[in-house]
Design a protein that fits this description.
The structure holds two protein chains of two kinds. Chain A is of the alpha+beta class. In chain A, 29% of the residues lie in helices and 12% in strands. Chain A has a domain of 89 residues: Roll (Ubiquitin-like (UB roll)). The chains are: A alpha+beta, B alpha/beta. Chain B: It comes from Erythranthe guttata.
């Protein structure tokens, strides 16, 4: 029963790109309510001039199509909406660490979160992510992709390291106008995200900056060296 | 005048008035009462830091000893308010460092607190006693070191759920050896390990310590050392509740717990190893609060524990407890007043535990004093909600989160309007409501009709039209805070009920259908409201007037527009429209 409901909900749900709630006018406000507003007075207030028609919700037993969630280019099997379900970050973190410790060695986890600021060139405001909520670069990439659209983290293999990337592929990525994530480590150096094993990254990352590929060229030498030493 | 009391007498009478409501009422009687009252008001609560300026507060209440204040809107907890939005407490501290040298208490929620702020606090108020930072951010452990080092009479240091940049655990060692005044220490949100010997010595020299909430890094093996030095504790938050299973650790822990005859609240419980749970058996019957919301243990272990806690009033737990566990709670915990069930896997596509609406129904049946509920689950029915409503007409807070948005009654596939309608109709004292699932405008009609005591309402992915919003704004007489996301509510209801907004603390609307034009109109017509648009796409006047804004935050204020708005927040007052629009006209746009 629950599955059936879920499937129905999913089919009816339209995932769309673009502005949140770009379907203004869709539900035909004028069909349902007629509010006469007394806007000529100095104050807009409640007044008895409001005349409300009965809503025809009785006709609509179907599930309502959703307003477009502000979401990613590649919708996963279950669309994750920002801030939903309403669970505080430190609670999400606990679960992520628990899952890890089940499968890996038991971590003497610090238990704290690892919040880092994320800025993206051209975006007007910063965001924060808790790195401990993710287990791999791919997960982080997906989450950042949702926060900032038109964004690529480059290709990561299943282990989440860019070690397979040949010099030419790297140069292609950096030459494109795609965005590349970089981070400032504990020493104050700016590095390309994906250079080091995930746990090391979480431990050393102080802040993230998503910059244009062309601008990140200066960071390429370190990545190049690493490519060479591995191949 | 012959019949008036001397001031001292009135002041003495007023000293028995504790609540703001009473003091505010007294202030309205006449000018002389207003004057007397304002000089003897010692505690000030400011629900929205931008509703008033520090200068106004200081001018009216010159002798304040305790300040409690809140900053960001509630939805900031779920990342809906961007970084840098505001809520800075520093200007308040600067002003108060001059005006209130005898300030003793600062309690903040969702505010940005910097290390400079903490240092200023620690140096400005000689008699500073209580610092509570709830869900705050912006400071590091260096700031805590200033507080520890400089506040000679510190009683409470409570960092509940704050986001602290954890540079090291060294801050704790800054408490001087002659600091013996500590009553409450909550460091549970911190990550780094503190020096255990420093902690132990601090606890040993604090005879009045009643609340000690440790962080995860404090190992279980050492917990008994602390407990033996603080058997007077009333509230304990453990660190990680795991260790190699050893009988000496176990017996030490058992002994330590049994020495704590006054323990009423327990929390912590990260990484629980179930074998160690029986060590706390001796305290269970005295517990009134149990927070197991980090304890990832199975239902059977949870049941064994909870059924021993017959005097429990507040239980926070993960959904691992399952319906069967909640049935056990309903049978054992007859004094239960508050239940919070958190999701263990909120983003999983499929349910991972057998927790349904039935668990909540059982508790509502078995626990006659239940009045506060926060419940995450994956299915709900109108029938269940109606049952709960009829069982518990004294419900005060009801927050239900069905994890998937817009999910209907799983039995009938209908909207959950009837169910929530029953809640508001039966629970006449309801003050707070959060809804989820499939909901049409009809539920809002019920709310507007019945929820006359409702003060806070949270709505997400619900409703069909402006009629829904109109019902709420026109019907809910006691409404103070309204927060809405992803609902098709737009201009008409908002503008028609503009005056209502002055009777409320605040309104939040994100991903709704309110147009820039309507926001401007609201801002122009209502000078005592700050109408703030938050939009990442740039200035709202670079888009058509009919274009909906991303986020809208409206709040009443006597402080005027705020001067710390970041680049992505715009105030829709007179200046904004006339200045920029006329600029455009001049530029021939």
């Amino acid at each position: 029963m629950v599955d059936c409901v879920k499937k129905m909900g999913f089919e009816e749900t339209e995932l769309r790109l673009g502005l949140p709630n770009a379907n203004y006018g869709k539900r035909g406000f004028s069909e349902t309510v007629d509010l006469k507003l007394n806007l000529s007075s100095a104050e807009i207030g409640l007044d008895s001039a409001i005349d409300l028609k009965e809503n025809n919700f009785n006709k609509e037993k179907n599930l309502l199509p959703s307003s477009s969630p502000t979401d990613s280019v590649k919708p996963p099997a279950k669309a994750q909406v920002v801030g939903w379900p309403p669970v505080r970050s430190f609670r999400k973190n606990v679960m992520a660490v628990q899952k890890r410790t089940d499968s890996d060695e038991a971590e003497k986890g610090t238990g704290g979160a690892a919040f880092v600021k994320v800025s993206m060139d051209g975006a007007p405001y910063l965001r924060k992510v808790d790195l401990k909520m993710y287990k791999t670069y791919k997960e982080l990439s997906d989450a950042l992709g949702k926060m900032f659209s038109s964004f690529t983290i480059g290709k990561c293999d299943s282990q989440g390291m860019m070690d397979f990337m040949s010099e030419s592929k790297l140069m292609d990525l950096l030459n494109s106008s795609d965005y590349v994530p970089t981070y400032e480590d504990k020493d104050g150096d700016w590095m390309l995200v994906g250079d080091v094993p995930w746990e090391m990254f979480v431990g050393s990352c102080k802040r993230l900056r998503i910059m244009k590929g062309t601008e990140a060229k200066g960071l390429a030498p370190k990545a190049m060296d690493k490519c060479k030493t591995r191949s | 005048m012959a019949y008036s009391f001397p001031e001292e007498v009135l002041e003495h009478v007023f000293s028995f008035l504790k609540t703001d409501k009473d003091r505010n009422a007294v202030s309205l009687v006449c000018r002389s009462w207003y004057e007397i009252e304002r000089w003897c008001r010692r505690r000030v609560f400011i629900g929205n830091c931008y509703s008033v300026s520090p200068e106004i507060v200081i001018r009216r209440f010159p002798e304040v000893r305790a300040l409690e204040m809140k900053g960001k809107p509630h939805f900031a907890d779920f990342n809906l308010v961007p970084e840098g939005w505001g809520g800075y407490v520093y200007p308040w501290i600067v002003a108060m460092s001059v005006a209130y040298p005898f300030l003793e208490e600062i309690k903040l929620k969702r505010m940005v607190v910097t290390d400079d702020t903490l240092e200023l606090i620690s140096k400005s108020f000689k008699n500073f006693k209580v610092l509570v930072l709830s869900s705050c951010e912006g400071f590091t452990t260096d700031g805590l070191a200033s507080i520890a080092a400089n506040c000679r009479n510190l009683r409470d240091l409570d960092l509940r759920e704050s986001e602290v940049e954890d540079l090291s655990g060294h801050w704790l060692s800054h408490f001087p050896d002659n600091c013996t005044s500590l009553v409450s220490l909550n460091m549970s949100c911190l990550g780094s390990e503190v020096s255990f010997s420093a902690l132990e010595r601090l606890v040993a020299r604090s005879p009045n310590l009643k609340t000690l909430r440790l962080n995860r890094a404090v190992p279980l093996e050492k917990l008994s050392n602390l407990l033996l030095r603080a058997p007077q504790l009333v509230e304990l938050g453990t660190g990680a509740y795991s260790a190699e299973v050893r009988s000496d650790t176990f017996s030490n822990l058992t002994e330590a717990f049994s020495a704590c005859k006054h323990l009423k609240g327990l929390s912590g419980f990260w990484d629980v190893v179930p074998a160690y749970l029986p060590a706390m058996s001796s305290v269970c019957s005295g517990l009134t609060w149990l927070n197991l919301s980090y304890a990832t243990i199975q239902s059977s272990d949870l049941i064994k524990l909870v059924t021993q806690c017959r005097n429990l009033q507040r239980l926070w737990v993960l959904d691992y407890i399952e319906d069967s566990g909640l049935e056990a709670v309903a049978a054992s915990c007859k004094d239960l007043q508050e239940l919070r069930v958190f999701p263990s896997d909120p983003f999983g596509a499929e349910p991972n535990v057998s927790l349904t609406e039935q668990g909540l129904v059982s508790v509502s049946e078995g626990c006659p004093k239940l009045h506060s509920v926060l419940y995450f689950c994956r299915q709900m029915s109108n029938a269940a909600l109606v049952t709960i409503a009829r069982n518990r007409p004294k419900m005060i807070r009801f927050r239900l989160c069905i994890i998937e948005p817009r999910v209907p009654d799983y039995l009938t596939l209908e909207p959950l309007d009837t169910g929530f309608g029953a809640i508001v109709e039966n629970c006449k004292e309801l003050r707070r409501l959060s809804m989820s699932g499939l909901l049409t405008d009809r539920v809002f009609e019920y709310i507007g009709t019945h929820a006359k005591k409702l003060e806070m309402l949270s709505i997400a992915f619900a409703g069909d039209s402006d009629l829904g919003l109109h019902h709420v704004l026109s019907g809910c007489e006691s409404l103070r805070k309204l927060e809405i996301r992803d609902c098709p509510f737009g201009d008409k209801a908002l503008l028609a009920n503009a005056a209502k907004l002055e009777t409320m603390r605040s309104l939040w609307m994100s991903s709704c259908s309110v147009s820039f034009g309507a926001c401007k109109l609201l801002g122009q017509k209502m000078p005592r409201l700050n109408v703030e648009v938050i939009d990442e796409r740039g200035p709202p006047n670079t888009r058509p007037e009919s274009c909906p804004v991303e986020r809208l935050y409206v709040y009443r204020t006597v402080g005027g527009r705020r001067d710390d708005m970041p680049g992505f927040v715009w105030n829709m007052d007179q200046d904004f429209s006339t200045f920029r629009d006329s600029q455009e006209q001049e530029n021939g746009n």
